[in-house]
Amino acid sequence: MKTSTRRLAAIALFSAIATLLMWFPRIPLIPTAPFMTYDFSDIPVLIGTFALGPVAGFVIATLKALLHFFTYAPQGWIGVMMNWSITVAFILPAGLIYHLLKRDRAGALVGMAGGTVLFTIVAVLLNVYVALPLWGIPAEQVAEMVTTVVIPFNLLRGIISTVATMLLYRRTADLVREQLNLQ
Question: CB 166: neighbour CB atoms within 10 A?
Fold first, then answer.
């Protein structure tokens, strides 16, 4: 992987945009769990991953999480760690499938579908064994929360991010590749 000033600038730009999109808008998707909000920050991370590769996507996701943690993170380190882990579980399979199969809409769609399944599984495991116990949720409520909140929220998150990315990625990714001379 060739690292250039333009490539680093693109990674920084995608990270900054993703960080801004974590702040607003924040949309509660599950009425019974208004504390779980959707933000559009996965979209620039996915587009950066498709345009620059999975390693760059990992760096973008990590920078986004660090910037969010040090500027404004209402859920604290637990929320930042959860978001980072789930984002990485989304973008890495999406980016790997996209770059290993075909760099087209079908490859992106298959990658994001696989990423959605993987990050939903990761979200369930992290909520059951880390977040909900640390936030003091009684064990008897955890199973119900997983089936009524965690799984539906994460599937919706994946679907929304996939649709939005599909609408935006080709134009943006092509523009970035053109600017970086990666055609």
Answer: 14
Structure tokens at 114: 């696989």
Picking from 124, 177, 181, 183, the residue whose alpha carbon sits closest to that of residue 151 is 124
Q: What pLDDT does 183 receive?
A: 54
- What total of structural domains would you count in the chain? 1
Residue ranges in the chain modelled with pLDDT below 50: 1
| Helix extents (H) in 26-128 | 42-52, 54-71, 76-100, 105-126
CATH code, 165: 1.10.1760.20
As beta bridge partners, residue 28 has: 37
Domain range for residue 47? 5-28+35-179
The CA angle 61-46-154, to the nearest 5 degrees, is 80
Place of tokens 């089936």: 147
* Six-digit token string for 59: 């760096």
- The pTM assigned to this predicted structure is 0.92
